[in-house]
Design goal:
alpha+beta, 3 domains, 4-stranded antiparallel beta sheet, 21% helix, Immunoglobulin-like
């Protein structure tokens, strides 16, 4: 149930106790807080495990290290629950960067890294026909050392769905990606099941991650519609 707040709550956002303050179409409202189910997938458990490890690690840092992270955070920016720019704390920055370092197979860093920025990926060509399912960057990075390409894809959606990129979840990480086509069928099927005519539209998000610093590029969006015809045109 939603409730329109009084002017006294104009700047509220986020959740507290059993309610959540939110905004939609420039109107702010308060609704009952949703807690979600208790079931966790293997991927969710893995992500939760990394964050728990980093949260515990932050508590063991020296004052000097904490001050260094807080100083670096002053030059960074996060996002509020309503999507607007917001300040980020040293603890949040420590967790954000180290998450990707660990996800890429590295060890979390105690001393803040020098942030260099990560170029956005180019557009991509996605082929999804028959049993062929490939992802190919139209242009590779000039220097891909230490860079991972993270590919996220949604479950198949009906033809009437026009935008479902938010439903995409990670299916593959490619180390030092090139402009060569990457076979993603097995990865996709293992996560979302095989594409079908009943739900042929698949939405993608993809981005680069620097495995040394934990920096993430901007996110690119794409979509493809599966067809039963093979790549060569045969059914």
């Amino acid at each position: 149930m939603k409730y329109i707040p009084s002017i006294a709550f104009e700047e509220m956002s986020g959740s507290a106790k059993g309610v959540t303050a939110a905004k939609m179409k420039n109107r702010k409202y308060i609704r009952n807080r949703g807690y979600g189910g208790s079931v966790r997938t293997q991927d969710q458990a893995k992500v939760k495990g990394i964050f728990k490890r980093l949260t515990t690690m932050w508590k063991t840092l020296t004052n000097e290290n904490i001050l260094a992270w807080n100083k670096l955070a002053l030059s960074q920016q996060g996002r509020s629950v309503l999507g607007t720019g917001a300040k980020i704390s040293g603890a949040n920055l420590f967790t954000r960067l180290n998450y990707w370092i660990v996800a890429c197979g590295g060890q979390p860093v105690v001393i803040p890294p020098t942030l260099l920025g990560v170029e956005n990926p180019s557009s991509a060509t996605i082929v999804c026909q028959g049993d062929t399912f490939t992802f190919k960057l139209d242009q590779a990075l000039a220097d891909n050392g230490g860079i991972y390409l993270v590919i996220e894809a949604s479950e198949g959606q009906s033809n009437g769905v026009s935008r479902a990129h938010a439903k995409a979840s990670a299916i593959k990480m490619v180390e030092e990606p090139t402009a060569a086509a990457v076979d993603i069928r097995a990865d996709y099927v293992a996560k979302n099941g095989a594409p079908s005519a009943a739900a042929p539209k698949i939405f993608f998000r993809y981005y680069y991650v620097n495995s040394s610093t934990g920096e993430k590029s901007g996110t690119m969006l794409a979509e493809v519609t599966w067809s039963a015809a093979a790549a060569g045109g045969e059914p």
